Amino acid sequence: MVLTLNGTPVTYGDGIIQHNEIIVMNTSNSGELGTSRADVTYIVKPIIDVGTGGVYNFNLVEFFNHDWIDGHALVVVYEHPSLPEATVAIFDGFADVNETFSINFTNPLNPNEIIFFAEMTLGISFSCCDQKSTVMVNEQLLTNNAGGGDDAIGDNSVHTLVI
Fold first, then answer.
1. How many CA atoms lie within 13 A of 150 on its CB side?
2. All residues at 6 or more sequence positions from 68 whose CB lies less than 8 Å from its CB, including other chains
3. What does the alpha-carbon distance between residue 108 and residue 124 come to, in Å, rounded to a whole number?
4. In this structure, are 58 and 121 located in the same domain?
5. Phi-psi category of 81—alpha, beta or left, where left has phi over 0 and alpha has psi -120 to 50?
6. How far apart are CA 44 and CA 41, in angstroms?
7. Residue 24 and residue 54 share a domain
8. Structure confidence at residue 24 (pLDDT)
9. Can you give the pLDDT at residue 1?
10. Which residue, 146, 150, 95, 109, is CA-closest to 128?
11. Residue 96 or residue 3, greater confidence
12. Do 114 and 72 belong to one domain?
């Protein structure tokens, strides 16, 4: 068992192997980089279904070397009949994308629409030493200091678990 969410063990999907005290995806040439995914609907849904909405607190306990972990992300995607339909896109980099990543939509987005919203977060699961990356969206600078080896203690082996 690697971790529990609200006291329930988290089960990872196919293609994941045990490696150096942590479960990582079985990828070639990945070194110590690790990203894992798990569907935790069976843990989260019963709590949210009886709730009143708003913020929910979940307890996550790790059972391995904490110094190698950058963090966790709990992504909840839901629908509600009173809300407009929306598109949710969760992109897993875990690949060499030649320093540029583009998303092209069939139809242009209109940020002036009253129901429009867009949110972006970054989970940088490996970086080292004085490495710094620039993040730009639509040619506007968001940061020129993304990354770096300040996200973990110990060696340069840094992992992120996304559940």
1. 7
2. 21, 22, 32, 152, 154, 157, 158, 159
3. 28
4. no
5. alpha
6. 5
7. yes
8. 47
9. 60
10. 150
11. 3
12. no
**Do residues 104 and 32 share a domain?**
no
Sign of the dihedral through C-alpha 10, 12, 17, 19:
negative
Alpha-carbon distance of 159 to 34, in angstroms, equals 5
Domain count of the fold of the chain: 2
Amino acid present at 23: I
Q: In Å, how far are 33, 46, 81, 111 from 126, measured between CA atoms?
A: 6, 34, 39, 32
Residues 67 and 26 in one domain: yes
Most confident of 10-14, 67-71, 103-107, 157-161: 103-107
Predicted confidence (pLDDT) per residue in 57-95, tens digit: 899 888 766 555 666 777 778 778 888 777 777 766 555
Cα 50 to Cα 77: distance, rounded to the nearest angstrom: 17
